[in-house]
Amino acid sequence: MNVEEDLQTAAWIARQVGVGRAAVANWRKRYPDFPQPAAGGANSPLFSWSAVQAWLVENGKAGQLAATGRTVTGTQLIGDAPSVQGLDRDLSDLEPGELLARVLVSLLPRLGDDAPDDDRETLVVLDPACRDAAVLTAVAERYCDHVRLAAQAPDDTAADTVRRVLPAVGDLVRVGDALRTDLFAASRGTARAVLCVPPPAMRQWPATDLAADPRWRYGLPDPADPDLAWVQHCLAHLRPGGVAVVVVSPVTGQRPSGRHVRAALVRAGVVRDVIALPDGLAEGAVHLWVLRRGGDEQSVRMVDLTGLEPADVPQDHAAWKPVLAADDQALVRSVPQVELLDGDTPLVPARYLRPAASLDDLGPVTARLGRLYVDLARALPQPTPASSAAGRSHVTLAELERSRAITILPRDATPRAGDLLFRTMGRDPVVADGTADDERGVAQVVGIDTDRLDPHFVAMFVRADARAAPVANTHSALTRDDVRRCRIPRMPLIEQRRYGDAFRRLSELTAVAARLAAVTDAVVTQTVHGLTAGALDPAALGAPGTIEPPENEKRTQ
Q1: The model scores a pTM over 0.90
Q2: Each residue's pLDDT tens digit, 68-97
Q3: Distance of alpha carbon 213 from its chain centroid, rounded?
Q4: Domains (ranges, CATH) in the chain?
């Protein structure tokens, strides 16, 4: 088998096996022996298809291979399909990069509306930093075959991925670093739209070597500001009236070294929107800059969507209209040029949007919070000496398995309420409660015979051995042999249940304390905002007092 042909993306594998992308992602997280990426890096991993096939057979999933090669809606057929409407997938089936790609594409206008005589040959959409096919696939999903797709990929692996997923792109995929060597330089000023997700690993760019390049018409970006180089690269490729959407780090919008470029962009009226996105759509926090070449914007619309869930960010062009037109100064505001140019020209929504000081509920919430903390104090454990545990004998889970008091279930077993779950990433064992959370990060599932063992008792006593296990795999997941070595004390069932009830109450206490901490933080944040916005007086905090830190914190100060 040709090695390059054997390497495939997770999306390709999902289509071949006949499952959603989320299923492949779940296999990677849940099964430590799932084949590791063979190439492509963290952003666009490629897997050995032959190794995945072997893994499917070994793990009892061979039946899913019957779907191999029969999909008719997969993106590998985009170039040949007369319509790609079948590509639409449920949002839960998309990875963060695909969600981000859809958001970028949804901010583009209906191409061709401003120039009805345009044909497909002149409606070019370019991805100049194409590390995978996610962005161009989202373009194809929206515009079908009404536009031409072009991409500059950083390496041959990324380029091969694009050609494999989008065969219609053809020779409009070129390989090379677009900032250092613009392989579409001859066609600058012709793209109808440019979509760009700059590589996150880039910390500097070769500004000195490219100082004379005509792309930097708004000023030569500092070596530490590669995003500003990408912004100008995208603008250089747009035709008049063309739109670019660029993913930009929030620090780019306020770093002093980039002030001169930001100011020039604002004065030229090419910056239309700056949109702060919620965490979870990319690696770290990101903003979107929406730019229009030849624009004459007298203000920049600042939009803060950080309070949304990633899947709730608009992914359809029509869905942006109510968001951008909202009469909510905490969500969106058009900031005039004169205000933007006053100082360091920060292009950061948080600088211009402040949450409304709604204090009507603050008093009742604070009072309720105080009562809950009193209740919590009453629920804290009171030390009660136990009889000596020195004489306890122990039994391993391997012995319990042989006596059929427990059953170590297959790795793809669906957890049931009452099962013991050993988690990945070094997290403590828990008892399944029958909710969707049971499926997340599971390394091993152990069925419990509740006529002989109390599940919470077992979960409490295997903690120490589970933590001490020398886990060597990348998911920090215990193997079956690790699980079998864990021990619990021998106790009558009635005594087990006493310990199990205590452990369950402590688990509930931990959950309540975590929720109270989150609510307390929200109350403090709202109070600080009320003070700084002029809606609250310092007297709101009552008489001055001192909150004593715990003794161990005093010693570390």
Answers
A1: no
A2: 433 332 333 333 332 333 334 445 456 778
A3: 35
A4: 3-67 (1.10.1660.10), 75-352 (3.40.50.150), 394-489 (no CATH)
